Amino acid sequence: xxxxxxxxSSRPEVTPDERSKPFFEACAAGHLLxxxxxxxxxxxxxxxxFCSICGxxxxxxxxxxxxxxxxxxxxxxxxxxxxxxxxxxxxxxxxELEEGPRLNTHIIGCANDxxxxxxxxxxxxxxxxxxxxxxxxxxxxx
Length: 142
Ligand code: ZN
Fold this sequence. Notes:
The chain is mainly beta. Helices cover 6% and strands 35% of the residues. The protein has one helix at residues 21-28, and strands spanning 33-37, 43-44, 59-63, 67-76, 90-97, 102-105, 120-127, 133-139.
């Protein structure tokens, strides 16, 4: 369970569950996995319970290219949790992967005021303070 007690200053951390465990294990090994329909091979957004193309319910983890573009982003100046006090202003972004699904993430290796919609990015992996490795994205040359 994430730490949601606003009276503490420890920041909420990613905690893999049974369903997301393969994703985070792959991140730790340097691979980005996203789910793919076993029936029609369509890529699926992370939270979809069924394939949006054929309605199939068997979604399997498959390796993605790790490349994409910034679909949208914002810069957070007003923190909503004291655990992020030292990080504001920080960016939050939605990256559209080459395969189609979009991931909520952060852009690294780039000043917040240099981030642009449409910017090509590639995945990088960052270890959080609780040891879980998460995907973030950094700009790449075109
Ligand atoms: Zn399908």
